[in-house]
Amino acid sequence: MSLQDRLTELRDQGLADIKSADVLKKVNDVKVDLLGKKGPITEVLRGMRDLTPEERPKVGAYANEVRDKLQAAIDHRREELELAAQNKRLAAEKIDVTLPGRQVPQGQPHVITQIITQLEDLFMGMGYQIVDGDEVEEDYYNFERLNLPKDHPARDMQDTFYITKEILLRTQTSADQPRSLENHDFSKGPLKVLSPGRVYRRDTDDATHSHQFHQIEGLVVDKHITMADLKGTLILVANELFGDQFDVRLRPSYFPFTEPSVEADVTCFNCNGKGCAVCKQTGWIEVLGAGMVHPRVLKMSGIDPEVYGGFAFGLGPDRFAMLKYGVDDIRNFYLNDVRFLSQFYKKG
Amino acid sequence: MRISYAWLRDYLKLDIPADELAEKIERTAVEVDGVIRPSEGLKKVVVGDVLECVPHPDSDHLHICQVDVGEDDPIQIVCGAPNVAAGEKVIVALPNSWIGNHTKIKRSKMRGVVSNGMLCALDELGFDEKLVPKEVADGIFILPADAKPGEPVFSYIGMDDEIIDMSVTPNRGDMLSMNGTAHELAAIYDQQPTMPTVDLHEDANELADDELSVTVQADEQAVPMYKMRLIKNITIKPSPLWLQIRIWNAGMRPINNVVDATNYILMQYGQPLHAFDFNSLTKGQVNVRFAKAGEQLTTLDGEERDLATTDLVICSDDVPICLAGTMGGLDSEVTDNTTAIALEGAIFDAVKIRKTAHNHNLHSEASMRYERGIDHSATETALDAAAALIAELSDGTVTTGVVVGRDEDVQPAVVKISLSRINHVLGTDLSLETVADIFKRLDFPTTIDGETYTVTIPARRWDIHIPADLIEEVARLYGYDNLPSTLPTGQPTIGKLNETQQVIRDSRKLMESAGLTQAISYSLTTEAKAKAFAMHASEVTKLDFPMSSERSALRLNLISGLLDDLAYNNARKEHDVALYEEGRVFFSQPEQVRPKEVEHIAGAITGSMVQTAWDTAATPVDFYQIKGIVAGYLKSLALAAPISYVASTEHPEMHPGRTADIYVGEDLVGFVGEIHPATAKAYKVRETYVFELDLDALIAQPKEHQQYQTISKFPSITRDVAMLIDDQVTNAAIVKLITDKGGAHLQKVQLFDVYNGKHVPAGKKSLAYTLTYQDQNGTLVDDEITKAFDKVLAALTETLGAEIR
């Protein structure tokens, strides 16, 4: 048998062995058997000494060809088997991905904070500063400077916790606005502030009253501030909180610190304006109080109302949250039942 | 204020639906609480004519009536009312009719006799009991003789009316009257209202002055106007039905002709009037003054009241007989026997009346109007109108002349405003004519010079005195819906959080990421809870007049509020709770009532933060978990000074062995630990771990200067040391010693084992640390590290008595 034939025979036998090897070890055995130093191919190559110089390169080339072919077959088979083994292992490693993940404790912001943050962000985007006044205020700032002198009938609207005759728990976050007004340097631009915070009223706690609640009040004063600007701003707030699919209506109201004064109503989101229990059959929900800053308020802060004017608005995040999420008892916000708090896990 | 639509039609031509009118009022003038339709829900309630009425054979009070209800044959109805009688026109609820309170009337048998319906009293039709005239309260209501059997009953008793219930804001006192409301609607609908006229006949033979005299001692500010009329020969009786209807539809109870007439004029003109029984006055003499200390007056409601020197009183012969503008006195009340009255039309100072009404808790239709202001130009007209009406209803005579205690020269206000100012404030582009037309609709006499309006404000609109008030009139009548909608323009400003606000926001996020949920608790609490857990000594700020001791003092700490929250959850079987709160506490300041408001952040954890799950066991919270949360939080604040935890027994509410004060450098910024078991018991909570930090103090701390450090390219070497050491020696002391003695290349000291179980002698503990060494500039030589490490070991042994293992 010529060496070529021997090589062909070895090749065919080897390819068959490789093909039938069903585990990696067998593939390795074939490799060692065929291509090892003591293997038959090496032996064939050793036999080349006896060939003529003409035949030697031919046989050599053929031998290399056979060796490469076998090597490639071995590599291929090995990959096949490795892949199969891996697939088998992966199949065995299958788990139930619907089992719950391991908990990492995660808290969440209070729903009122979420609303306040949302509006702070909206207004900061429009160049407003956030101002936190004191919760314990002087009667003078909380009332008198806002055009509510002692014995003003509108004081009835806000029953107050007093500490002394002159010191009280603020009934409105706008209590800080006279300070903002008197401290503002108008040469540096308009005054634009948003005051969110806790306020207090002398009310007996029940489902709709709380002696402690929150307010967000805004104030803008500049040379060219119009009621149309106020209207645009209020619509923006209503859209931010309730979505822009609802109508906003302004209607006259009364606040001593603004003139004209308005209240803003939004179409009842519950009934889409048809009338239901949420809106007391009116189709509208009162959400904001606002107006153009009363000239007397400006004057008391040393600002010339002939030159400057502005608007102010106020709203209650507690009330918003109650409306928006259908919370039927305001006390929920302050009792901190985890089953309540955990329901409001995302902004908006 | 309840406005009858029927009554409004005396003034204006209005044919729009009441709901539409209400919406218009709401959008243009004042809030509307709703439209009341008294007949709503009522069905098959008709006029009946009692043809025959005989006693029920088996009853001592029932009657069997044959009632003509406009059908071919009368129907039989059994009635128990004492005043039922043949010949009366009555209210019949037919079989299958609906009456008040959603009640259905069916054919029935009463003691064996068929009753085809029911004869009704007013309250059975849904009338508020407080509005039903006393004389008809105990029986069925008798309709006028001309009522037609079979017709719906509603038009006969005013129930076909629609009543607009307005919620009038304090500035629009002018709308607390039909006249004022009519003026307002006239402006809205651009109509000329038909106002009521007064047709007064005085008896020329009798002069009021001859019998009645009035003096006003109180100053002009307190009593700007005081006038009286004397009406004689009157007969007290019930008012005619038309008047009763107007009175009850306005939400008041008909009393008698005199009282109803004064209330009617009150509704019509907004002017409170008071009728005194003339014969109860001493010598026909009336004087008005402030009450004297110690004086008393028994008011109409039977209350004996101690008068204050701020109360204005009407006196006769200097004895108080009436609390001015608020409530009359019992002794001068108009009774069924009254034959002559002195009728008062006056104006009292709003603030004085407000004070009196507030002090005596007497809020009446009169005081409410005085507090909000009165049309000074209409007082005498209203007095005349009332006198005329009373004379007409009571067959009395009005004596000639008004007795004037004080009069006032009422001058209308004049306000100037330019068109450009109006447009500037409203952001509109209204024309000269548009605005002029609005003033015309309001019936405000106006002259125009160039673009400036000079507007004369009638006394009936006393709320208007400055240009801004006129701008409001223009805005609301032009319509807020028609205003453009823009955003402020002008110089841009930067809107961003200041440092404190930013830290507060970040702190909240960090706490939430650490697994704590935000709570908002009450700032007002009991004095004891306010004081508990206080970080330093302080007085408690207390309310002057708290509603309850539960909410009487401002907190000095956040923890007690959180413990209340935990207790609330505990009581509802929620035992795994982790809360934090960020908010103000209120420390007293020397010589000041106002406390210093300090931002704090606190946390409270009870139970387990991670609950039992299929592959996890619940781990109850312990000191080191909450400390880890605090430490992680403080690390994120990047403070310059080192943070240290020092065992503290100084907090009486805290576990003395499991509490640490937290210092930044030398400054105490808070504490962390387990609450004392006694505290837990008092608050009704389980084992609970808490912390509280002074956020303002943390924000004030200098921040670490952050600078990039080259990451060493050279390998680090570690050495472990395990030691047996006295139990009293703290980890902090050991770490400090190791750090001090560790040499230049010591980078990190990490505690990796604490053991004090088996094989550790009593009073000792075993601790093990890994020390990591690294050089920025070269590879460390083993020998060098061994030398440094040995130094540490020696120091541990010598200084702390450690036994290296």
Automatic annotation (TrEMBL), chain A:
Compartment annotation: Cytoplasm
Top-level taxon of origin: Bacteria
Alphabetized UniProt keyword annotations: Aminoacyl-tRNA synthetase, ATP-binding, Cytoplasm, Ligase, Magnesium, Metal-binding, Nucleotide-binding, Protein biosynthesis
Known catalytic reactions: tRNA(Phe) + L-phenylalanine + ATP = L-phenylalanyl-tRNA(Phe) + AMP + diphosphate + H(+)
This enzyme's EC code(s): 6.1.1.20
UniProt-annotated binding residues for Mg(2+): E259
InterPro entries hit by this protein: aa-tRNA-synth_II, aa-tRNA-synth_II/BPL/LPL, Phe-tRNA_ligase_II_N, Phe_tRNA_ligase_alpha1_bac, Phenylalanyl-tRNA_Synthase, tRNA-bd_arm
Entry-linked CDD domains: PheRS_alpha_core (cd00496)
SUPFAM superfamilies in the cross-refs: Class II aaRS and biotin synthetases, tRNA-binding arm
Alphabetical list of HAMAP family matching this protein: Phe_tRNA_synth_alpha1 (MF_00281)
Similarity remark: Belongs to the class-II aminoacyl-tRNA synthetase family. Phe-tRNA synthetase alpha subunit type 1 subfamily.
Subunit and interaction comment: Tetramer of two alpha and two beta subunits.
Designated name of the protein: Phenylalanine--tRNA ligase alpha subunit
Biological classification of the source: Bacteria, Bacillati, Bacillota, Bacilli, Lactobacillales
UniProtKB/TrEMBL annotation, chain B:
GO function term, MF aspect, one: phenylalanine-tRNA ligase activity
Sites where the protein binds Mg(2+): D463, D469, E472, E473
Compartments, record wording: Cytoplasm
Catalytic activity: tRNA(Phe) + L-phenylalanine + ATP = L-phenylalanyl-tRNA(Phe) + AMP + diphosphate + H(+)
EC number: 6.1.1.20
InterPro entries: aa-tRNA-synth_II/BPL/LPL, B3/B4_tRNA-bd, DNA-bd_dom_put_sf, Fdx_antiC-bd, Fdx_antiC-bd_sf, NA-bd_OB-fold, Phe-tRNA-ligase_IIc_bsu, Phe-tRNA-ligase_IIc_bsu_bact
Cofactor note: Binds 2 magnesium ions per tetramer.
The TRNA-binding domain, residue ranges: 39-154
Cited HAMAP family: Phe_tRNA_synth_beta1
Subunit description: Tetramer of two alpha and two beta subunits.
Record's protein name: Phenylalanine--tRNA ligase beta subunit
Natural source organism: Lactiplantibacillus daoliensis
Lineage start: Bacteria, Bacillati, Bacillota, Bacilli, Lactobacillales
